[in-house]
Amino acid sequence: MINTGITAVEGYVPEKVVTNDDLSRIVDTSDEWITSRTGIKRRHLSTGENTSQFCINIGKKLLEKTGTAAEDIDIIIVATITPDYATPSVSCQVQTALGCVNAFAFDISAACSGFVYSLGIADKFIKSGQYKKALVFGAETLSKITDWTDRNTCVLFGDGGGGALLEPVEKGGIIAEDLHARGDDVSLTGRHHVVENMVCKNVEKGHPYLIMDGRAIFNFATRVVPQSVNDILEKTGLTLEDIKYIVPHQANSRIIDIVARRLKTDIDKFYINVEEYGNTSAASIPIALSEMSAKGLLEKGDRIIITGFGAGLTWGSMLIEW
Ligand code: B82
């Protein structure tokens, strides 16, 4: 059987940093309130770059650092809920900007689980033996769909992206996955587009922003994430002792604290950077992986579990041997 490996990871966040104190000047909040409830101190916000630009920057770095020719890329997948356009997809914009003329390209929508879902999809294409190289991104400009007058949500989100090059490897790579959805739970929703046309004047009003029932999704995350991590371990016959890091979606440090407690493992096993970027949805896991790689935390043979959870509701985990 062909194994799919992550052979390079890169991230990109916009330069502009907005602190909690900056936010306390536009909504009724404080650094103390935000930090104690979420662990977030800062977030990077786009001053004009859109989601495709993040991916293009990341893709260029990935090709450059691995010495990969653009024409050799077979697949481009972008996980995002904040594409530049309904169509063309961000992945098609990336394809043309990078010159990946032989790649097919599509976006997927699975919110904060999007990167994990996308790795799962790319893995199957590579495992089929028909395709050799995939670029997989998670990237968001959540600031576009944030209500900047709502103090409960505008303090949470940030912009940025990350991406990976996937290729067949001899040993290790993606070892196991666990993917789920619960479409009946709408406690976290994004922009709602209602139908309005020449034959339909809609009475229902859409809304342009992210809306969440914090307590409900908090309970969801702290229930399903430990379960999903345990399912992955059970499938592989491994224990947490065999895992160097758990890399969770960076939604809120309190979620991670509770997940660690429920898994009866030390918080140090979790890679956490929510302090710096806030919640960047599909981008949070690849940004974390890119940081970890740059810091030399991911060595050959290390096993990690990535775990995403978010709107849909969707969730999923994956065990990767580096
Ligand atoms: S919260 O409910 O307001 N809360 C926890 C009880 C603060 C102390 C809250 C806040 Br603030 C921020 C995030 C969450 C949360 O649960 N987030 C998510 C849960 C599941 C899936 C995705 C997310 C996400 O924010 O991306 C709760």
Which key terms come to mind for this protein?
single chain, binds ligand B82, about 30% helix, alpha/beta, Peroxisomal Thiolase, Chain A, domain 1, five-stranded mixed sheet, 2 domains
What does this structure look like?
The protein has nine helices and 13 strands. The chain has 322 residues and is α/β, with parallel strands linked by helices. It has a five-stranded mixed β-sheet with strand order 1-7-6-4-5, with helices on both faces. The chain has a four-stranded mixed β-sheet with strand order 8-13-12-11, sandwiched between helices. Strand 12 (303-310) and strand 13 form a beta hairpin. Helix 3 packs across helix 4 and helix 6 packs across helix 7 (253-262). The radius of gyration is 19 Å and the shape is globular. The structure holds ligand B82. Ligand B82 binds next to helix 2, helix 6, helix 7 and strand 12.
The chain-level structural class is alpha/beta
Distance between the termini: 18 Å
CATH class of the largest domain: Alpha Beta
Outline = globular
CATH superfamily of the largest domain: Thiolase/Chalcone synthase
Q: Low-confidence spans: pLDDT under 50, at least 5 residues?
A: none
Topology (elements, then pairings):
Layout: E1 3-12, E2 17-19, H1 20-24, H2 31-38, E3 42-44, H3 51-66, E4 75-79, H4 90-98, E5 104-108, H5 114-127, E6 134-141, E7 159-169, E8 173-181, E9 188-189, E10 211-212, H6 214-236, E11 245-248, H7 253-262, H8 274-277, H9 284-294, E12 303-310, E13 314-321
Helix pairs in contact: 3-4, 6-7
The structure holds ligand B82.
Ligand B82 binds at residues 37-38, 112, 156, 188, 214-215, 217-218, 220-221, 251-252, 254-255, 279, 309-310.
